[in-house]
Write a structure and sequence with these properties.
305 residues, mainly alpha, 70% helix, globular
Length: 305
């Protein structure tokens, strides 16, 4: 496939991911509202918010890094998309494999923390007295989440002897029993538990504490910068779900399968958030250093020996 066709498929794929992220987010909020006895937002609300934000301009002046933070976060989501094979077509140069390459899993792991670090730098220059609290919470929990995830990723790479996400998906074709969920259950369990923190719903959303602290990105940013953050959030939620889908649940052979699987993966975190109350940050970090970390260590040991 020539570079122009590859770019065309990549741009089209990103538009699908972005809009699916907005729709999935609205659907989850609708489900949560109905469970609480409320009607909830209309499904079109994310697009209304986006266009309203990008049509306004901010008059507040902060440091340069404060405004680069949302750009970093969006870059993290776009980076995940660009180097992530979306739909398995039987060819590594297929139309929906984007710019994935041998060893892309390592790059994906870097992009997974890129947005968080960018937002930490941006918050640090915002001048709010509680910014340090949010940065400390966010980085502490993110480090606790990344450790079991990284161990599980390494176990899967050792299992299939490759750091290529495409080859990992290819090795899981041929039936549900070929999925990592069944061939490497310890790594799968570590990812399934650690993804709760990665997706950021209750009980692991103290970083934002939406019901207790009336500050944070939603109130500190406005205009186009807030639009960047909404787009980044929609993209990241889909791409993180696709990453876990590719590594644990056999990938997807069509866009319909991708949408169904990513919805179910994301719904898992939303369901847990509706059932369990919020953790304190020390409880959250301790929890990730117990069960998910132990499962990740066991997964690596089993496939190393």
């Amino acid at each position: 496939m020539n570079i122009y066709a590859k770019l065309a498929y990549t741009i089209l794929g990103f538009l699908i991911v972005l809009n699916w992220g907005f729709l999935m987010g609205a659907t989850m909020r609708k489900i949560g509202a109905r469970m609480a006895g409320r009607h909830g937002i209309p499904f079109k609300q994310p697009w209304i918010n986006l266009f309203k934000s990008i049509s306004t301009r901010t008059v507040i002046t902060h440091g340069i890094m404060y405004y680069i933070g949302p750009v970093f976060r969006l870059t993290g989501g776009i980076g995940l998309f660009l180097f992530m094979p979306m739909v398995f077509t039987g060819s590594p140069d297929g139309p929906w494999t984007n710019f994935s390459f041998e060893g892309d899993l390592i790059l994906i792991m870097y992009f997974n923390v890129f947005g968080m670090l960018g937002m930490a730098l941006g918050a640090g220059e915002g001048g709010h007295p509680y910014a340090a609290m949010g940065i400390t919470r966010g980085l502490a929990q993110h480090a606790a989440v990344e450790l079991p995830l990284t161990l599980a990723f390494l176990s899967i790479a050792i299992q299939f002897d490759t750091f290529s996400i495409y080859k990992i998906v290819e090795a899981q074709q041929g039936g549900i029993m070929h999925w990592v969920l069944f061939t490497n259950p310890f790594a799968a369990a570590a990812i399934i538990l650690a993804m709760l923190g990665a997706l950021g719903h209750s009980p692991f959303n103290l970083v934002k504490a939406p019901n207790e602290i009336l500050i944070g990105p939603a109130t500190e940013y406005e205009g186009t910068y807030l639009g960047f953050m909404m787009s980044a959030g929609a993209t990241l939620h889909v791409m993180e779900a696709v990453l876990f889908m590719n590594l644990v649940f056999g990938g997807a052979t069509s866009w319909l399968e991708l949408i169904v699987k990513s919805f179910l993966i994301y719904f898992w975190s939303v369901f847990v958030g509706m059932v369990f109350p919020r953790f304190k940050i020390e409880q959250s970090v301790t929890w990730f250093f117990k069960v998910p970390l132990l499962l990740g260590v066991l997964a690596v040991i089993i496939f190393m020996f």
